[in-house]
Amino acid sequence: MTIKIRGIEFEDNLDNSMGLEFYNLSHRFGYQSPNWPYFEDVKIERIHYMAKSGVLSQRITTSMHNTTHIDAPAHVVQGTPFIDEVPLPHFFGSGIVISIPKKMWEPITYDDLEKAAGKIVRPGDVVIVNTGWHHQYEDSEDYFCKCPGFVPSAGHWFVEKKVKVVGHDTQANDHPLATAIGPQRNGPLHPHLKEEYFKWSGGRDWKDDFPEWEPVHRILFNNGILGIENVGGDLDKVTGKRVTFAFFPWNWDRGDGCIIRLVAIIDKTGGYRIEKGESF
After folding, report:
1. Cβ atoms of residues 270 and 87 within 8 Å
2. 80, 85, 89, 94 alpha-carbon torsion, rounded to 10°
3. Are 219 and 159 in contact (CB under 8 A)?
4. Cβ atoms within 10 A of the Cβ of 192, count?
5. What value does the mean pLDDT of the chain take?
6. Which residues pair with 128 in a beta bridge?
7. Nearest to 244 by CA among 275, 274, 217
8. How far apart are CA 91 and CA 98, in angstroms?
9. What is the pTM of this model?
10. What SS3 class is residue 245?
11. Architecture of domain 2-28+64-266
12. How many CA atoms lie less than 13 Å away from 147 in the CB half-sphere?
């Protein structure tokens, strides 16, 4: 089946000559796309445009940690690989999308992961966690500062299961209060959250509950596991399924991470095969 987009025909995502189904799991990127609290806003300039030059050419200024993106280990851990140094097979492969519904500030733990995927996860899998938080993706404190998040026991689960890549529909590979949003490193970016957390938790100090800065990032990266942040798009449509993922970053020398187009691929007939590379 073909579809027309601005007068040009393309094959459909779900009904094409390859017999494959393609699902976009990425949020949009562009002008005023939601951004982490201390990053500079995305800037897009039309250097050339139709009325001026008969061609469209744009210049973009952005952090690579905007929208759906993958972190290189070097983003947090000094002396570890940059994005261009990670072998290509790390950005393609089989995996699962699991549902672990969570509310504001709730932790995602070892036990949560074991209950959801302990019997189905395989060594080398890509594991994407759907908490439901991607439905709140917007320029808001709720999305970036009050989301649920992984705690260290979750990081240890991924290492124990020999997972290849971790993805999730929240803003960081750690609980937000274990980042600079909370009492960590250059934070707190939002000091008023201290009192809110005190009330929400029944009287606990956020420094006691989150004593380390980005511990899950460090657990993952020191074990060669990369993390995809801000997963979204059609995530619900593939939750509870085993699929194939593709999410290649730029070949960026000494890159700390990269915006990606995360895609889930399903082959219902099992008839599609990768070419053998035979000479012709």
Report:
1. no
2. 40
3. yes
4. 10
5. 96
6. 97, 167
7. 274
8. 19
9. 0.96
10. strand
11. 3-Layer(bba) Sandwich (3.50)
12. 32
**H or E segment and range at residue 194:** helix 193-200
Q: Which of 21-25, 82-86, 208-212, 270-274 has the lowest mean pLDDT?
A: 270-274
Say whether pLDDT at 6 is over 90: yes
d(CA 58, CA 243): 34
Coil, strand or helix: which one is 156?
A: helix
Largest CA distance in the chain: 71
How distant is the alpha carbon of residue 190 from its chain centre? Answer: 23
**Tens of pLDDT, residues 108-149:** 999 999 999 999 999 999 999 999 999 999 999 999 999 999
What whole-number distance in Å separates Cα of residue 114 and Cα of residue 116? 6
The residues near 54 (Cβ < 8 Å, ≥ 6 apart) are none
**84's tokens:** 């261009």
275, pLDDT greater than 90: no
**Can you tell me whether residue 168 is helix, strand or coil?**
strand
- Residue reference for tokens 């956020």: 206
SS3 label, residue 254: coil
Residue 39 CA to residue 37 CA, distance in Å, equals 6
End-to-end CA distance of the chain: 30
Structure tokens belonging to residue 178: 């274990």
Measure the CA–CA gap between 77 and 53, rounded to whole angstroms. 45
Residue 10 has what pLDDT? 93
